[in-house]
Amino acid sequence: MIFSGKHRGGWLGAGALVAPLLAAGPLRAEQDKASCLDAYERGQEARQAGKLREARGKFAVCAQVSCPGLFVSDCARWGEEVQQVIPTVIFSGVGAAGEETSAIKVYMDGVALAEKVDGRAVEVDPGEHSFVFEHEGVTQKKVLVVRQGERDRLVPISFARASAPRSTPAAEQASGPGSSRGPTAFLVGGIAGLGLGLGMGAWALSLKGKMESGCDAASRFCKDEASRDAAKLGGTVATVSTVGALVGLVSLGTWWFWPSRKPGDAALEASPTVGGGMLRWQGVW
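and the corresponding C-alpha cells:
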C-alpha cells in the first residue's frame, strides 16, 4: 500500500503525540516503586517508635498491587498485626449540672483528637499522653498511660460543680458556741483554777486557825459571836476552795482525754453546803 504525503504527515503527527506517553510509562513505574520502598521502610520505623496509626497508613501504601510482590506480602501482613494492637479509648462526659453530655472536645498531645465524646471508641497510640478536655469554655487536663493492645478503655470526664456539703444537727452542735476544745486553753485554765483553789484553801485554813484560837474546842464556846462566825466562814471557804481545786484538776483531765462528750454522759459537779461542800459524779452508763 502506498500512502500519500498527506496521510504520511497525519501518521507522523499521531506518532509524535503517542511517543511521550509511551516514554512516561517507565518513569511512572519508577516513581511508584520509590513510593513503595519509602512506605516499606518508614512503616517499620513508625512501628518500632510506637506510632502504630502512622505505621498502619504506610503499610497500606506498600501493600498495593502496584508495588513489588515482596513489598505487598510483607506490608499486608504487618498492617494486620499493627491493627490488632492499636489501643482504643472511650470517653464519657458529664456536664456542669451532672448530666451526661457529648459536647466535650478532646485534644491529645496538643492535637485535636475528637470533636465530641459520643460513646464511640477512639484509636490512640500506646504510651503516655497529655489530654485536654474542653466544655463550655472550661478545660481539664489529664495524663494517661495507654497500653499497647488495650481495647475500649473507659475514660470518664466530669465537669460537674462540687456542691457544698449539707450541715447536720450533729455538725451544727459541734460547731456551736463552746464547742471548741483546744488542749492549750484547757491546760492553762485548769492549771490556773487549780492554783487559785489551792491558794484560797491555804488562806482559808490559816484564817480558820486564827479564829479558832479564840474558841474553846471542848465546849465549842467562843469569846464572841464574831470569832465563832469567822471560824465557820473559814472552814466553809477552805472546804469549797479545796473542792474547787479538785474540780479543776478532774475537769482538766476530762477535757484532755475525753474530746467529745454527749448529753447524758458522766459529769462532775460541785456545790457548797452549809458548813462544807459537796462533790458529785453522775451520769448514765
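(Above: one complete record from the training split.) The chain has six helices and twelve strands.
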